[in-house]
Structures are given as C-alpha cells and as structure tokens.
Amino acid sequence: MSRLALRVAGALALGGLLGCEPLPAPAQEPAQSSPAAQSARTARRVERDPAPPGRRAARPAGGARKRAASRPGETKAQSAACPAEMALVEGNHCRSVEQPCLEPMTDAKRGPDKNRCQRFGASRCTDPKPPRAMRFCMDRHEYPGKPGELPMTLVSWTEASRLCEAQGKRLCTESEFTFACEGEEMRPYAVGFERRPDQCNIDRPYLTPTRKLLPGPLCEANAACQAEMKRIDGRRPIGESEACASPFGIFDLNGNANEWVSRPWKEQPHRSAIKGGWWGPVRNRCRAMTTAHDESYLGYEVGFRCCGDAAPAIATH
C-alpha cells in the first residue's frame, strides 16, 4: 500500500467526518485595547505548566534512537541530549514578564493595530518566584520536519498528539513553546525585539476557504480540496526561512504555521491551545496564545511540532 493510501486510511479511522464541516477563518487571537495594554495583560499571566519536564517519568525523546555525536554550534553534551532532528532547550524561564511596545504598528485601514508591535523595549521578569529551570528537546522544524516539504496543517490536536507519540515524543506544552521561542532574554519574537517579516513568514495577506476542507491526507487525495488549499495556502517549505531562528536554533516558531501545544492540567477536550502565529498579519509572538479551539479543531493554517525529555546531562569533572 502506498504512503498516501496509508495516511488516508489513518485519517479516516481517526474521524474523517471532521472534513464534512466547513472550516472557520484561521485561528485569530482576540483583539486587545492597545499593544501596551496587551503587553501588560501578557505580563500578568502566569503560565500554568504543572511540572518541569525533568520531573516527569518519561523516556528521552525518540526512545532508543541514535543521537548525533556532535552538531555545528553545539557541544558534544548538547548533541547527546536529543535526537539529531531536535534541539536541546535549557535554561531558566520566567513565567510572567513585562514587554513594553515602543513602536506600535498600523492596520490595513491606517489605524492603530491592536495586535502587532514593530519594536519592543527590553523585557522585565515580573514573577516574584524564582525562574523555573527547564531542560527538554524540541523539533527544529515543524512536522514532518523534512526540508523542502510544507509543514502539515489541517490536523487536529488529537491527531497531532498521536503522530508525536508514534515517534516516541509528545506535543510541546505551553511554557516549553514559550521558552524555546524567547529564551532567557524573554524576547517578544523568536528573532529578537523587532518584528521581522523579512526573516519569518508573517504579515502576508491571507484568504479564507470558500468550500469544505478535509483533514490533511484526505485533502491531498481529493482534487477539489487540494485545489482550494492551493488557492489559499501561504505556507513556505520547511527549511526555507533559515533566518527565522530562536535562541536555541529552532525554526519558524513565529509564522509559517500556527502550532498546537498541550495544556496537560486541563480536562479533555480543552487540553489544546495554539501558539506561534502563522503567515497572516496577527500577533506572531512567543507569549501569545489562542485557547478558543478544542482538540478536534481543524485549521488550514494550524500545524504542530513535537517535544520530548532530554537525556540526563553528562557529568563533567
């Protein structure tokens, strides 16, 4: 059986009926009163990830798969911590920050844009508690992680979780995504404190579907769905935006495709959230998050990547 046929069969088994419902517009973040007010709200929100990955009794990402001896820009210990397709994310994460917007943007009508900021000032940690130590592995690229291919979208949170688990990984949590994107500098954007559409696939015009779209593999096998997806698609191939890299060398955490994350302290079907932003003119920031969609939602701009626990640190003497 061909690879496409297998993917179609899997999608049917996991609820192809989802494709029978019209898709809403792309996941939008709710408007805020002003960029400064939005930053203040973000500063007050304390992330609720329950426990650092190191406290979970989980096997290292990728199971027993071979790890690279070393990779450019990494120490041998860093390379040994994660599978070759993943990056080690390690450091201290502040759960609540203040990020002042110094240069608000204008919208298409030349009015103030309530969701976007061209330039931020230095971030300040406002959490009275000590920063949280984090150490985990994250896929360098959006799923399926193959340079030259488009990131997978039209995938539910449930299916994304299954695909990560099939690789011995899991969906990233809210705070894992945030820290991998912003680093210890608490950057508003993965690339720094300025909005850079020249580096990341963001701030582009977008279209919405005018017909029903099916889950990814089924859409690929359906000529009408495939044509509609091609008409509205703004994704860029994996590996094309090399300058859109976070402090840990992870790509496209802002823009290209929205990404599912997990909130394991929530009850089913509300464990799902969306972070990172996509190619449209939306927030596209590290801390922003959309929680309006449950685990069955399909978005033509929503994809994912996987995380996992890092192997134990190598002791040095």
What distance lies between the first and last C-alpha atoms, to the nearest angstrom? 53 Å
State the name of the first-level CATH class.
Alpha Beta
Instruction: Please tally the helical runs, counting DSSP H or I stretches of 4 or more residues.
Output: 7
**Radius of gyration, Cα only, in angstroms?**
19 Å
- What is the CATH T-level topology? paralog of FGE (formylglycine-generating enzyme)
Taken as a percent bin, the fraction of beta residues is 15-25%
Structural class: alpha+beta
> What number is the mean pLDDT?
84
Largest sheet: 4 strands, antiparallel
Residue share in helices?
A: 10-25%
How would you write the strand order of the largest sheet?
1-6-12-7
Structure in words:
This protein is α+β, with helices and mostly antiparallel strands and 317 residues long. The longest helix has 11 residues, at 3-13. Strand 3 and strand 4 (112-120) form a beta hairpin. The protein has helices at residues 3-13, 35-44, 76-81, 157-166, 174-182, 216-220, 223-232; strands at residues 86-93, 97-98, 101-106, 112-120, 124-125, 132-139, 170-171, 258-262, 272-275, 289-290, 302-303, 306-309.
Topology diagram in text:
Layout: H1 3-13, H2 35-44, H3 76-81, E1 86-93, E2 97-98, E3 101-106, E4 112-120, E5 124-125, E6 132-139, H4 157-166, E7 170-171, H5 174-182, H6 216-220, H7 223-232, E8 258-262, E9 272-275, E10 289-290, E11 302-303, E12 306-309
Parallel strand pairs: 8-11
Antiparallel strand pairs: 1-6, 2-5, 3-4, 6-12, 7-12, 8-9, 9-10
